[in-house]
Amino acid sequence: MSTLPDSNSVAPSTSDLAGRILVVDDSQTNCEMLRRRLCRRDYDVECANDGQAALDMIAASEFDLVLLDLMMPGISGLEALERIRQDYSLTQLPVIMVTAKGESQDVVDALSKGANDYVTKPLDFNVGLARIRTQVNLKRTTASLQAEVLERKAAQENLADHARRLQTSNDRLVQAEKELQQSVRELQQKNESLEEFVYVASHDLQEPIRKLVSFAKLLQTDLGDSLDESVANDLAFITTSAHRISTLVKNVRTLAHTDLATAEQAVSLDDCVNAAIDSMSDEIAVSGATIERQSLPCVTGNEVLLVQLFQHLIGNAIKFASLDSPVVEITAVFADSNWAFGVKDNGMGLDVRYADRIFKPFQRLHGRDEFEGTGIGLAICNRVVQRHGGRIWVDSQPGQGAHFQFTLERVHRGPIDSAPINETESCNLPPVSLENQS
After folding, report:
1. Which CATH number do you get for residue 402?
2. Could you tell me if residue 10 is inside a domain?
3. Last residue of a domain, one of 65, 99, 123
4. CA within 20 to 30 Å of 28's CA: 93, 182, 258, 302, which one?
5. Total domains present in the chain
6. Is residue 241 part of a domain?
7. 424 and 276, same structural domain?
């Protein structure tokens, strides 16, 4: 391969894209001259003096282009080209053949066997450089596009896999929702069956209790004045026990109904307190208790349950209030963006170590000979408060009264149709610390 000087040529900018080139020529002089000129254009150039050496170098290293002389001893340029194309496509490793000027058949043979381009001897360096640059850029652009295609294909596969997993998760979610709905329906049916059973059982139990009381009274009437003191005491015990059982059955029914009732009505707590006080007017009059109260907000809940809540708390306060001057106070404070309602008495108080115990069914701190009761009232209060998304607790010390307090989840700032209070809204009561209300 021979080269001509490029005295009239304009050297390309060194900012042009470079690459790694293998020059294959049996002339060491031509190889070295071309290597130097290409290196000045920022190409990395290796040389091979025969076809086998070129094939070995291609197998051992990576090149962006091969400049391959057609006529060489041993393995010819066309044979080397055929073997290169067995492993590399036109875009993977471009090959420019160097042919004798005017040998058109050599050009046809080279192109038919997989050459990307050709140059003729003697080599015009600027023309050769332009063709080298074109093929190197084309290879790199193709490689970049192929990499992008692979990347997009991988992204599409990942997207498809994600879609499959999402569909699987959605199918599981749909199935879980169906199972949940089925469980809700079954639970609703069980609750309805339970409510029906509790109603029937309480009704059936009340009938023999009423007969027991009635026959005890009839027996007392029949015996009249001949009734001695011990028999009178026995009849009174029968009657008292029957009334206690009747109250217990009613409370158990109330406790069961609490968990089943809905709590989505707009309710005025003032109306609930009024109803509770009206229903307990005889008990309040007999005890001589003073009821102190203040205005209460409205809530979303169940009016029947909330009336029962105040009935049990007020009744509990009257039961344990001071015998000399019983005072029951209905409290309501707003602090830390929450309402706390309560019923406070001036009675004997209790040890807070037993505070959790008293809210469980049938748990009592006193015997029936000291205070009447079934041990269910505060359990009902606890269930009602939980049903309304709140909590209940007691602040007390022995001898200093007890303050039963509770929260409700959905409290309104004013009329029944007003919106629930949130952290940015004010209230009509001062934000007194709950600790100061204990």
Report:
1. 3.30.565.10
2. no
3. 123
4. 93
5. 2
6. no
7. yes
Judge whether 277 lies within some domain. Answer: yes
Strand (E) or helix (H) holding 396: strand 392-396
Q: Cβ distance 330 to 343 under 8 Å?
A: yes
pTM of the complete model: 0.45
Give per-residue pLDDT as tens, 38-71.
999 999 999 999 999 999 999 999 999 999 999 8
Contacts of residue 126, Cβ cutoff 8 Å, sequence gap at least 6: 6, 9, 10
Q: What is the rounded distance in angstroms from the CA atom of residue 339 to the CA atom of residue 34?
A: 91
Which residue numbers in the chain have pLDDT < 70?
1-17, 101-102, 191-207, 209, 211, 215, 225-227, 241-263, 322-323, 351, 354-355, 361-375, 413-438
Residue 47: CATH number of its domain: 3.40.50.2300
* Residue ending a domain, choose from 123, 157, 173: 123
Amino acid at 274: N
Question: Helix or strand or coil: residue 392?
Answer: strand
Residue 242 located in a structural domain: no
Range of 94's domain? 20-123
**302-343 pLDDT, tens per residue?**
888 898 899 989 988 888 776 677 889 999 988 777 889 999
